[in-house]
Design goal:
This protein has twelve helices and 18 strands. It is of the alpha+beta class and 429 residues long. It has three domains: 127 residues, S-adenosylmethionine decarboxylase (4-Layer Sandwich), CATH 3.60.90; 38 residues, Spermidine synthase, tetramerisation domain (Spermidine Synthase, Chain: A, domain 2, Roll); 226 residues, Rossmann fold (3-Layer(aba) Sandwich), CATH 3.40.50.150. α2 packs antiparallel against α3, α7 packs across α8 and α8 crosses α9. The chain starts with a strand and ends with a helix. It binds spermidine.
Length: 429
């Protein structure tokens, strides 16, 4: 070869769109493509974009392999660039063609043609230290694979190992468990983070304890969603509980959590739990009036099956199913990430429970986009969750149960809203 390297520019078309949207498969295929061509892999960086698409690069001692995918066009742009004679980029090409089930067009060009460039006697002023390891001896490569929860303008990313512990797509949604470096294992539904091992207690304690403490003596509780089990784990910390009914639409969420997130899914064996795999929206519609002390709506974001959890009909049915003095609490999205949904849900609840009986809380959701998340309460009655709650009881409870986020001071503080949020909700009078 009369050049420093060979560069193949590939247009892969007609590919399998699901494969092109799967960061783990893409990363694995690209690394394999490098390795079977005889390259020495140094590291890899891959990002999954939401709603779709993957970009990534595998750095090899002999240059790089790079990819950008457009699943919606079933298209991938791939660069296979290798230097020296020991690696054949066409071997990588063949591997990827098969992995993506692709049609292709490709051109090869020489890089650093020796007709054009001449070697000099360049002597670097500073010599790099010798590497402390021998790449050829198969050291562990550094992988840089990211999961991104985002809309068109904002995102939250977690770097994960690249290994996929659970991945199932069913008619409702895609359910995954991945292993992040900073937050441990996490549950993702449709490219959105649901909970991570490290910070799930923020969400699960806050969706449970303020409402349970505000009620004071809830014995019969209904949970809609909550398939990972974190919410029922918190509810079962109350000795007075007689029955918890949980209606989760997707059994895969329960299974994934039991299998991979056992500390979150710790209470599925509780004898007081009635777990129903079914449609929570229909369940509440059919529920007998005046049945529940507390209803917890622990759903996903309003796409897919959780869409119906953001409607007036659903909350009207929740109100009917509550006893007098009962309270519904729902995850209310983020004022910074989903302002429209946040405000609409608040207005919807006010229309059903009355303006003075809807109360909004904020808490730190460190792995949800923007980090600021809301919970909204609708009270069937006149009790106020702050002025009427028993602070001393909340203190004793949170201490005795070793809670890590909720305490009696935070209870009141969570209802204190920043001025801009009050303005959004029309409450800054
Ligand atoms: N954007 C994430 C909102 C998720 C709310 N539900 C999480 C489920 C945890 N039990």
């Amino acid at each position: 070869m009369n050049a420093l390297g060979r560069h193949i520019l590939v247009e892969f078309s007609g590919c399998n769109a699901e494969v092109l949207n799967d960061v783990s498969i893409i990363e694995r295929s690209m690394i394999e493509a490098a390795q079977i061509a005889g390259a020495t892999v140094i590291n890899s960086t891959f990002h999954h974009f939401s709603p779709w698409g993957v970009s990534g690069v595998v750095v090899i001692q002999e240059s790089h392999l790079a990819i950008h995918t457009w699943p919606e066009y079933r298209y991938a742009a791939v660069d296979l660039f290798t230097c020296g004679d020991s690696v054949d980029p066409w071997v990588s090409f063949e591997h990827l063609k098969k992995a993506f089930q692709a049609n292709y067009s490709a051109i090869e060009m020489n890089r650093g043609s020796l007709h054009v460039i001449k070697k000099t006697d360049f002597q670097p002023k500073i010599m790099r230290e010798k590497p402390s390891f021998d790449l050829a001896k198969g050291v562990q490569i550094e992988r840089n694979v990211w999961f991104t929860d985002k809309d068109e303008n904002q995102a939250l990313s977690l770097r994960y190992t690249g290994d996929v512990l659970f991945d199932e797509t069913n008619p409702f949604q895609r359910v995954r468990v991945l292993d992040s470096y900073s937050h441990g294992k996490f549950l993702a539904i449709n490219n959105m983070v649901m909970c991570t091992e490290r910070d799930e207690f923020h969400y699960h304690e806050m969706i449970t304890h303020p409402v349970m403490q505000a009620h004071g003596n809830a014995k019969n509780v209904l949970v809609i969603g909550g398939g990972d089990g974190g919410t029922i784990r918190e509810i079962f910390k109350y000795d007075q509980i007689e029955k918890v009914t949980m209606v989760e639409i997707d059994e895969a969420v329960v299974r994934a959590s039991k299998e991979h997130l056992p500390k979150i899914a710790a209470e599925f064996g509780n004898a007081k739990l009635n777990l129903i795999i079914g449609d929570g929206i229909q369940f509440v519609k059919d529920a007998a009036p005046n049945s529940y002390d507390v209803i917890v709506v622990d759903g996903s974001d309003p796409v897919g099956p959780a869409k119906g959890l953001f409607t007036a009909e659903f909350y009207q049915n929740c109100k009917n199913a509550l006893k007098d003095g009962g309270i519904v609490i729902t995850q209310g999205e983020s004022p910074m990430f989903h302002e429209g949904t946040f405000v609409e849900l608040n207005q919807c609840l006010k229309g059903i429970f009355g303006k003075g009986s809807v109360h909004t809380m904020l808490f730190h959701a460190t792995t949800y986009p923007s980090g600021m998340w809301s919970l909204q309460m609708g009270v069937k009655g006149s009790a106020h969750p702050v002025s009427d709650f028993n602070k001393d009881k909340a203190h004793q409870f949170s201490k005795a149960k070793g809670l890590k986020y909720y305490n009696e001071d935070l209870h009141s503080a969570a209802f204190a809203l920043p001025t801009f949020v009050k303005t959004m909700l029309g409450e800054n009078v």
